[in-house]
Each structure stands twice: as C-alpha cells, then as structure tokens.
Amino acid sequence: MRSIIMAELRSAWTAWFAVILAFIATSFAIILPLLAWVGVEDTIATGLVPEMDVPALRFLPIWNLALALLAALNIIGAVTGLVVESRRGALARLALAGATPGQVSRILLAQLAVVAAVGGVIGGVFAIVAVPAAVSMAVGDRGIDESVVVARPDLVMALVGLVGFIVLAMVAGLRQSRVAAAVPAVEALRTIPGASVRRRRIGRWVGAFLLALLIAGIAASTFAMAPQLGVDSADMVLQSSLICLLLTGSFLSVCAPLTIGLLTKAWTALVPSRSGPWVLARASVIAKGERLARTVTPIMFSVGVLFGLGVLLASTSALLRSLGRDGLEQAGMSTLLVFVGLVLLVAIAGGVSVLLMMSRQREAELALAGVVGATTRQQVLMSVLEGLVITGTAMILGLAMTVVGMVVFVIGMGALGLVTPVVVPWHVLAAVLGVCALITVAATTLPVLPSLRRSARTVVAQLAAE
C-alpha cells in the first residue's frame, strides 16, 4: 500500500506544477500587504508624513490584505478542485487498492501542503524584494515625497505570512479533499456526473441567493444612511459601490456553472461566421460549461475590477469638478494598482493556471478535430478563437459588475442631492480587454502547440491513461 501511495505522490507533481503559478501569486498577495504594513508604520514613525494622510496609508495594506484573502479562498479552492478532478482515476485506483477515505484525503492534503509551501516561499521572496517599491508607490500616490519612505523587510512578518498562507491553502483545499475521498471508486471512474453534481447545483443557487440579499442589503443601507450623514457620507457611498461591485463578481462566479453556458451560446450566436474552426471552437466552449466557468471567472474579475474602478474614479472626478473642486486627474494607473493590483494579480494568475491545467483536455479535443480532417492551421485557430470567446464572455460579466457598482454610486450620490455624471473611460476598457485577450489566447494556444506534432492516437491515449 505504501508503494502505491508513493507512486501517486510522484505521478501527481505534473498536475500540481501546472497550477503553482496561482500559489505563488496568492502567497505574494498575502505576504506583501503584511510587509507593507510594517513599512508604512515605520514611515509614519519618522514624523514626515502629513497627519491627514496617515489614516489612508494605514488603510491601504489592510484593504489589500482583505481582498487578497477573499480572492485566495476562491482561487486556491478552484485550482485544487481542478487538480483533484484531473486525478479522479488515480484516486479511484487508490481506493480500489484498499486506501480508506481518510487516507485519500490525507494524501491530497499532504500534496497541497508541499505545493503551498513551495509556492509560498517563492512568493515570499518576491514580496520581500517588492516591498520597498510597494510602500513608495502607496506614499507617492498620496502626493508625498517618496524620500521619506522607510521600508526594511521584516523577516518575522514574512514568516508569519508564509505560515498563514499555508494554513489558508489547507483550509481552502480541505473541502475538495474530503469530497474527493468520499466519492466511491466506481463513481470516480465515471465520466457522467451523478447526484453529487445536482447537490452542488442546489448549493450554488442557495449561495447566489444569499449573495444577492447581501448586495441588496448593502445598497439599501447606503441609500438610507446617506441623507442622514450628509455630504460627509460621500466616501461611504464610494466604498459601498466598490464593495457591491466585488460582491457582484462573487455572485456571478457562483452562478457561472449554471448560467454561463447559456450566456456564451446567446452572444456567440450573433457572430455570422459559419467557418469550421469557429463552429467547433464555439461548440467546444459551450459544451464544457464547468471548464468555461472556471476559466471565465478570473478574467471577469480582472475586467470588472479594473474597468469598474476606472469608471468610478472618472465619474467621481467629474462630480468634483462640477462642484468647483479639484478633480482626480492625478489618479492614474498607479492608483488602480495601489487599490486593486494584488487582487488582479491573483485573478490573472488563477485564470492562467486554470487554462494551463485544462490544456491536456484541449489537446485531446484538437486531436479529435484533426482526426475528422482539421488542418494544423485550423487547430491553432480553434485555440485562438476559444480564447477570444472566453474573453468576450468575461467582458460581458465584467461590465455587469461595473453597472451594479455604478448604479449604487449614482443612486447613493443622488440621495445626497448630487447629480453624478457617468464618465466611461473607453481607453481603459480597450486596454483591459486587449491585455486579457492576449493573456487568455496565449494560455489557450501556446501549451497545446507541441501536441500538434504528435499523432492524435497518442494524445488521446495519454489523456485516457490519466
């Protein structure tokens, strides 16, 4: 039995290696705010920071850490679920060889702990290197001379962050390991979902309903409290808008496996092309609803957060100018990075990891397309089109996040008697979509290119063996 367990540990490393980028990015996003918090406190202790800027500087590391923790739970759980799903056959063989559910769960948790430790150490090193630049960016964004910055990396705090990340990864992966261990060996070998999928659907609807209630409650309380607090509540309205925007992303991600296939089918039907690569790419994306949902969600967050915050900042600046005050012209890309840079890094890394993890399935699909007559050029074009379809769906969902955030902002400001002009920075949207499309297309296309030089039979047989 021990030899079987060791063989499973050795054979699983390729699957975990495909998602290690998500672990590195997540650990970086958790450790960096902790180190930045120490740097900010040391900088404030010099007495050279204006008193009015102290609360905002102290708030930034806490804000980024909270966002990173929220994103980490989702991303680590998602990529762990993908690895577990890809190892269903191997886990079934362990069970058939006599492994108990507890042993299977411990094997998965041991693998997760090792990967989290490796990714955490790498991410921690990057965070230590980046902390002076991070503190300087936060200070400079407030218009303060960066020469006052004191940012000596605190190794004890870095170690605390590393341990915290490993614990967080174990918590995020605990449910996945228990679910995988509880699946009977015969059920694990099936390719058709059973009752467990139906139970997950019920849970998703319940979760989506609770998130919708939370969003509505935050919006309603903001609208009710704003008139009582007066103009001083403008900051509260802006913060509530951003929170509702992020929660809308969580709501859409929970609903994604249930609705995203229908959304993609609807908008892609508007494309008049009937070329073979487009038809096959569209059908492949729509048919793999669970894969599409896991891929689209991180890209959706990237589009929604970046573009949504851009619209909020531009509209706030226009509102201030209409009141005869200074706008936010100094708020550029550095402001966006200070507020949401780390959560965007986690989202993009998670998206790339998901795409890389699913590249083996995509290789088999392209091999089957080659069997029915697709040329190498058409196979490559199918991968490119699949990446564009994913980006298009993510754009629609990201715009939905932005709309919810702006509705809360406009109505909240209206409760204060302020008419808010909605300013859409189209250049930000174009830049965000361009970068996301480039990353997604590269992640869907580049990993499968080597498989096009092998025979279709070999590619399909390798996937079946795993």
TrEMBL record:
Keyword presence, Ribosomal protein: no
GO process terms (BP): lipoprotein localization to outer membrane
UniProt keywords, alphabetically: Cell membrane, Membrane, Transmembrane, Transmembrane helix
Any single Gene Ontology cellular-component annotation: plasma membrane protein complex
Superkingdom classification of source: Bacteria
Keyword Glycoprotein recorded: no
Protein topology in the membrane: Multi-pass membrane protein
Domain ABC3 transporter permease C-terminal: 66-176, 338-454
Bilayer-spanning residue ranges: 12-40, 60-84, 112-135, 155-174, 205-226, 238-264, 299-320, 332-356, 387-420, 426-449
UniProt xrefs under InterPro entries: ABC3_permease_C, Lipoprotein-release_system
Principal place of residence: membrane
One Pfam family it belongs to: FtsX
Locations listed in the record: Cell membrane
Family that this chain belongs to: Belongs to the ABC-4 integral membrane protein family. LolC/E subfamily.
Protein name, per record: ABC3 transporter permease C-terminal domain-containing protein
Organism, as annotated: Microlunatus phosphovorus (strain ATCC 700054 / DSM 10555 / JCM 9379 / NBRC 101784 / NCIMB 13414 / VKM Ac-1990 / NM-1)
Lineage: Bacteria, Bacillati, Actinomycetota, Actinomycetes, Propionibacteriales
